[in-house]
UniProtKB/TrEMBL annotation, chain A:
Membrane topology qualifier: Multi-pass membrane protein
Taxonomic superkingdom: Bacteria
Pfam family, one: BPD_transp_1
Transmembrane segment boundaries: 20-42, 78-99, 111-139, 145-164, 220-240, 261-283
Organism: Paenibacillus algorifonticola
Family annotation (SUPFAM superfamilies): MetI-like
Name of the protein this chain belongs to: Phosphate transport system permease protein PstA
Domain ABC transmembrane type-1: 74-279
Automatic annotation (TrEMBL), chain B:
Localization of this protein: Cell inner membrane
Domain ABC transporter: 5-246
Single Gene Ontology MF annotation: phosphate transmembrane transporter activity
GO annotation, biological process: phosphate ion transmembrane transport
SMART domains per record: AAA
Keywords: ATP-binding, Cell membrane, Membrane, Nucleotide-binding, Phosphate transport, Translocase, Transport
Any one GO cellular component localisation term in the record: plasma membrane
Membrane topology category: Peripheral membrane protein
Keyword match Transcription: no
The protein, known as: Phosphate transport system ATP-binding protein
Function: Part of the ABC transporter complex PstSACB involved in phosphate import. Responsible for energy coupling to the transport system.
Pfam family, one: ABC_tran
InterPro entries given in the database record: AAA+_ATPase (IPR003593), ABC_transporter-like_ATP-bd (IPR003439), ABC_transporter-like_CS (IPR017871), P-loop_NTPase (IPR027417), PstB-like (IPR005670)
Length: 291, 251
């Protein structure tokens, strides 16, 4: 018993109380976010579940809510992803590899680094203006699918570069040393040791950037994506629309039916986001085991 | 013992820090040479000049001569990838790739263009046998190299280095992260390997140097104080500082 005698009971009780209080606070902090999300989902579910029918995917938008679907927007979003994904992957990961593995650590690279981190935080509308100036006007791509995809690529590039850099930096130096000591060149070391070790992190970043992109509206409105498209884009130069624009279009109509359509559109978008984020987590878990 | 490596008046600077001072030394072929000395005296630095791993540290500058079999390492005729193929290295911490045991061994041969499955199988088997690991892993070559014990990982790293058919093997405190039994295994392995390879090892453990090596080099603040047959250096050192160090009076 004697070794416990000098314990200051009052002070311990105090510490426990603080511990308990903070515990409660943190629970509240967490619940705010979770509850808000739940409220949103329930609200959208109530409004949108009735219109969550096959026609949503098979019909083009029309003046009558009953015959309306979001086929063109869904296809537009998918095409957009298909163009953006390889483009931003190659450019983003390439830039990250250059900055982490090849570039010297000097003033210039630090400046580039600062710029990229800043660009990752620039409001998306600014990218819309950039896309309008460069792709739509200067390169006269007009309000085309390709102009939209290029603009979105610019938007996600900094995010992909920064997250890929982090993943590459997390590969221990000892693994590079092992490769170099066997007579590997720089590229052999990068391609056979560094990239395999960081691929999970890189892909996670890419997927999260893509899921950010499919929710973006402002830059596409800026470059002139149409809000009413009753056809599928046939070429890269065709005009197009995407899901969030379609949803915005429906919400801004006065009739209740369209509000319901918008809600079901949101449900589809949310499901897509959920699938993408889930696959990012799965990827991370799968590769974490052998890193 | 024929001398294989000749080092003459070698100076190395990390930017402005003078890390190796007028190092002059010969290292015999097919024998074990141990580098000993207190922490920070330049043992690893000298070891890394032998496979030019220092090239990757920005600001490193080298003066003087270091040659293997008459070829100057820092001359134009040497390309660093070939040099590193000929001079293998084992590090302090076992550093297998997060790949299978098989792919770890095959990594080096593949780098240098060997594609044939049959040839690779053969290399994997002989390398693992040379590193005294074959019997322990032959039934699960597809298992992750990270799933075996630390001592086994280190022998795997030795096997990986042997797989590209080097002449020289550098070991930088390769046993300091291992338990006594794994250490003993590696010491025995090194004894066997010296018939076929020239081995240069850094060690903090003087008993290890005395047990294992044929020649010992004693370093102090970037200088080689003394080098000779291991037996002679430990029983009858010529320099007072060597005697102080091996008798445990400093370091
Ligand atoms: N990359 C580096 N840049 C600058 N100085 C370095 C670098 N690497 C080592 N040094 C310095 O060079 C000296 C020799 O280092 P080295 O690693 O060769 O010592 P060592 O004898 O291997 O020591 P230890 O027994 O602790 O491994 C040390 O003073 C160290 O601080
Ligand atoms: Mg060292």
């Amino acid at each position: 018993m004697s070794i416990f005698q000098d314990a200051n009971r009052k002070q311990i009780a105090n510490r426990r109380r603080v511990d308990w209080l903070l515990h409660i606070l943190f629970v509240i902090a967490t619940s705010v976010g979770v509850l808000a999300l739940c409220a949103l989902i329930i609200d959208v579910l109530v409004d949108g579940v009735a219109r969550l029918q096959p026609q949503l995917f098979t019909e083009f938008p029309s003046r009558k809510a009953d015959g309306s679907g979001m086929k063109s927007a869904l296809v537009g979003t998918v095409y957009m992803l298909l163009i953006m994904l390889p483009l931003s992957f190659v450019l983003g990961v390439g830039a990250a590899i250059y900055l982490e593995e090849y570039a010297g650590k000097n003033r210039l690279t630090r400046l580039i680094q600062l710029n990229i981190s800043t660009l990752a935080g620039v409001p998306s509308i600014v990218y819309g203006i950039l896309g309008l100036t460069i792709f739509v006007r200067l390169m006269s791509l007009d309000r085309s699918l390709i102009a939209g995809a290029f603009t979105m690529t610019l938007l996600v590039l900094p995010i992909i570069i920064v997250s890929a850099q982090e993943a590459i930096r997390a590969v221990p130096k000892s693994r590079r040393d092992a490769s170099f000591a066997l007579g590997a060149t720089k590229w052999q070391t990068v391609s056979r040791s560094v990239i395999p070790s960081s691929l999970a992190g890189i892909l996670t970043g890419v997927i999260l950037a893509m899921s950010r992109a499919i929710g973006e509206t402002a830059p596409l409105v800026m470059i002139g994506a149409l809000t009413y498209v009753a056809f599928l884009p046939n070429s890269l130069m065709d005009s197009f629309t995407v899901m969030p624009i379609q949803i915005y279009n429906w919400i801004s109509k006065p009739q209740l039916e369209f509000k319901e359509l918008a809600a079901s559109g949101i449900l589809v978008l949310l499901a897509l986001l959920l699938i993408m984020n889930f696959s990012a987590i799965m990827l991370r878990n799968k590769y974490q085991k052998n890193v | 013992m024929q001398p294989l490596i000749h080092i003459n008046k070698l100076n190395l600077f990390y930017t402005s820090f003078h890390a190796l001072k007028d190092v002059t030394l010969t290292i015999p072929e097919k024998a074990i040479t141990a580098f000993i000395g207190p922490s920070g005296c330049g043992k690893s630095t000298l070891l890394r000049t032998l496979n030019r791993m220092n090239d990757m540290i920005p600001g490193t500058r080298i003066e003087g001569s270091i040659a293997i079999g008459g070829t100057e390492l820092y001359s134009n005729e040497v390309d660093v990838e070939t040099l590193r193929k000929k001079v293998g290295m084992v590090f302090q911490q076992p550093n297998p790739f997060p790949k299978s045991i098989y792919d770890n061994i095959a990594y080096g041969p593949r780098l240098h263009g060997i594609r044939s499955k049959q040839k690779l199988d053969e290399i994997v088997e002989t390398s693992l046998k040379s590193a005294a690991l074959w019997d322990e892993v032959k039934d699960h070559l597809k298992r992750s190299a990270l799933s075996i014990s630390g001592g086994q990982q280190q022998r795997l790293c030795i096997a990986r280095a042997l797989a590209v058919n080097p002449d020289i093997l550098l070991m930088d405190e390769a046993t300091s992260a291992l338990d006594p039994i794994s250490t003993l295994k590696i010491e025995e392995l090194v004894q066997e390997l010296k018939d076929r390879y020239t081995i240069v090892m850094v060690t903090h453990n003087m008993h290890q140097a005395a047990r294992v090596s044929n020649q010992t080099v004693f370093f102090l603040s970037g200088e080689v104080i003394e080098y000779s047959d291991t037996e002679k250096l430990f029983s009858n050192p010529t320099d007072q500082r060597t005697e102080d160090y091996i008798s445990g009076r400093f370091g």
